[in-house]
Specification:
about 325 residues, mainly alpha, about 0% strand, transmembrane, DUF3667 domain-containing protein, RPABC4/Spt4, transmembrane helix, membrane
Amino acid sequence: MGHGKIRKNKTCLNCNYVVENKFCPNCGQENTETRKSFHYLFTHFVEDLTHYDGSFWKTIKALLFIPGKLTKEYLAGKRKLYVPPVKLYIFISFVTFLIPNMLPDYSFREEIHSEKEVETNEIEKKEINDVVVFNGPSIANMTQLDSIQNHLPDAEKFSWLQYQAYKFTIANKGKISKSELREQIKENAVHNIPKVLFLYMPLFAFFLWLFHDKKKWYYYDSGVFTLHYFGFLLLIFTISVVLEWLFALVYNGDEISGLIGIGTIIYSFFYFFRAHSTFFGEKKYISRLKGLLLFIINIFLITLFSIALLAYSVYTTH
């Protein structure tokens, strides 16, 4: 970085070598004061991730608009031109976690919560007598729930997810409205998206490696491709959240939000096929066939991960 105050002592703190100039000729460490201000730490963190020399913006441009280029360039040895894939993914994950939580609630245009909405929620809470979830039976309390669960045949018992949903709803009966419950579950699910993608990455890379020539492509290559593609997914998800928030400031409706969501899904779908074709360099029909099979397999597995995410979201909603 080069903005710290140079130490008067010429002995390198890292290797005890004599430092005549700014950097140690033996290990390369900068001979600056060890105690830094918070401002220095923050700017060093941002600069180290984003490379203010221009590589960060060049990386983001390629990641968003030129599918497959970053992976191809990185594995070709051009590694100083762009932010390394692991560092890029960590930074994007940080931004994905930070930005949605920083955006203020646009409902200030409607005075945070209108009296009508508050009154509706209160009515919902008071009117809840018996609990019904997943179009299941009406249950009044935990005693009845456990009785049903214990006496039903194994094939007819509630699944773990159904039981947890009933348990949670009964515990919060009269305390939280159905709309509030849906919002809490939705919020938890959105916050867990980066975790699910991170956990799924090794499996995604494995199927990529499995579908291509093992002599030409290593699992490492598929891993780099996966880091870039999942980084793209997180980044475009964050952009869509910001766009939805901006449009919600001036337009009170779900149509724009729906269009942004559809556009994001379509572009993500197109991006994968283009990146796959660009990187692996196969004939178009072979690349598209493999891409389609990979897409079907991953959609199925991601659906399972999403169900697990929903179950976790219900379980962790308080």
